[in-house]
Write a structure and sequence with these properties.
Two copies of one chain form a homodimer. Helices cover about 40% and strands about 15% of the residues of chain A. By secondary structure, the first copy, chain A, is α/β, with parallel strands linked by helices. Chain A is globular, with a radius of gyration of 21 Å.
Chain lengths: ~375, ~375
Amino acid sequence: MLKKYLLAPGPTPIPPEVLLAMAMPIIHHRSTDFIPVLESAKKGLQWLYQTKNDVLILCSTGTGGMVSSVNNFFSPQDKVLVINGGNFGERWTKIGQAYGLNVQEIKVEWGHTVKPDEVEMVLKNDPGIKGVFVQASETSTGVYHDIRALSRIVREKSNTILIVDAISALAAYDLRTDEWGIDIMIGGSQKGLMLPPGLAFISVSEKAWKMSQDAKLPKFYFNLRKEREALAKNQTRFTTAVTLIIGLDESIKLLQKEGLGKVFKRHETLAHAAREAVKALGLELYSKESPSNAVTAILAPKGLDGQEIYKNLKDKYGITAAGGQGQAKGKIFRIAHLGYADIFDIIIAISGIEMVLTNMGYPVKLGSGVATAEKLLLK
Amino acid sequence: MLKKYLLAPGPTPIPPEVLLAMAMPIIHHRSTDFIPVLESAKKGLQWLYQTKNDVLILCSTGTGGMVSSVNNFFSPQDKVLVINGGNFGERWTKIGQAYGLNVQEIKVEWGHTVKPDEVEMVLKNDPGIKGVFVQASETSTGVYHDIRALSRIVREKSNTILIVDAISALAAYDLRTDEWGIDIMIGGSQKGLMLPPGLAFISVSEKAWKMSQDAKLPKFYFNLRKEREALAKNQTRFTTAVTLIIGLDESIKLLQKEGLGKVFKRHETLAHAAREAVKALGLELYSKESPSNAVTAILAPKGLDGQEIYKNLKDKYGITAAGGQGQAKGKIFRIAHLGYADIFDIIIAISGIEMVLTNMGYPVKLGSGVATAEKLLLK
């Protein structure tokens, strides 16, 4: 018997309350059983997004949400700026190129965060840039970009919108959509929202809606203006993922019970403990600055393969963490503290790392990382 | 207390085995826990589709599958033919137009089925038509189009592919992808597959893959060639709806246990009983020919509103049926016998209709429809 522990940056564990709500007999998406649930989830998302903007619900994974932020607001040849500091930054570029946009990039060395000044300079020098695409938390490198500072820069430009991939940051970070003026923010169900994958969320500001009027890229499934019309009537355009929306409503209620401030604080505390514990083991973080509160990326010690550490955690101890992606593959492994995560998820992660490194012949003092975590997590 | 009965043409009821499998703690989409499940579901879909073609799994509702059959195989201005005989036929036209295709239509009067000869004539007169789009079961009218005959016509044309929306027909009809030569066939999770909404399936023939090489429409989320590459390695391109794929594997196993022939026969028997029972009540079917085995569309008796019948079934008796869509709204109501449906779903539907019509002042002989159904459903 090997008990299973899911400590990956998405899908993340699902609270039993949510699993049970989703296991109830299914209801019809046009029925009076479902409409109040959709309405409640819609309002809950606005609460979580800290916004009065529309927050639309798409039946797709997060990448579908990313695509919808391209094909609804831009036209072929439009110039846009992508902050590319990891695997998901690269995805922005690929999506933009697939749709024929003129994609400029600020390349950020993996493990680092973008300098807002650099973004400001690029926008100043090229007022034709219509959109700035960035990740809040870049899951592949475990780095958080300063969305507040970027918002401040972009909101000054009347013809430029800021598009934030907050897929792994939503419900982990205090992202103030309205206060900061984030035009478009994308979330996914399988991260901080503690749900299975299958839903994307996207908030849209008035400035972005205006831009959408001139957008000429073809759209049908991801047509946000039509999604807005339907959701205004507490309807979905097509059959939607009823089950996941029932779960969404339930999971938002759990977050509301805890309180938004406490949810963010919990993520911060757990992430801090994870990072300090890892360092206490003599390991190095992959994120050289602004480490994310959603996921901790750890450099494999010299001579060890990050994928092997991932594999040993899984095979020997039942812990599903994550390996590296793209250029970081083999170099790192990652543990998440995202969503339905608490003190003992950190303890399990650190304890597992201590034992796996020992198994692999890397000298760590057993219990020393756990002790550091406990000190920081003491109630 | 009002017990609930779901008799709508999707979402359809989910077997408890499937609900429970999906309620298990979630697993990671890149983990060794998930890969065998994906592989098994992939093979199961090929079994259900009766094909050796790729059957790809998309994280979207069925409409996303429909879109992917347009943006992966055609270029702007390409001429295509849509069989438009209902709400979902209209959707083909709208999708084609949204992507800039030159859409020709054969308009079929609602409640009727397309004449294969007419399709043959149109294709003969216009060899530039690259694709023929049709529904197998047109859910809005309760009519089945003769896919076998249409396949026979289109397979003769080397530059034309047949695209079948089998969303509500899959697992209800014996659709022989390889034997008949269906190029593209789209399914959805929430119909005959007895799952929640959130997955689309799409089979692609070699002829269609060849056509995809020249297709110039932009694509990223719905990029079938890339989906194929990933699935060949038992992977998904992005995070996928893990939970639904676990359910999919489970539901296909239930269908396999029953046997494909018996599954189709069950749908045929239930549909036949439903239709005869309805007629025994003096009601008229909306489908004037080739009524679908997935859903029965019934004309509201003179003076009664179909939406009111739907509403009374729901509010008074807890039965979620369906009303009419588009031009049929108000004129009809619909009951499904699709997926996890058995004898007593028909009995409940007919009994509910008898009582609601009585409540609404329309004279039916109580029990007479049920008697007819029982006679046809006797084991």
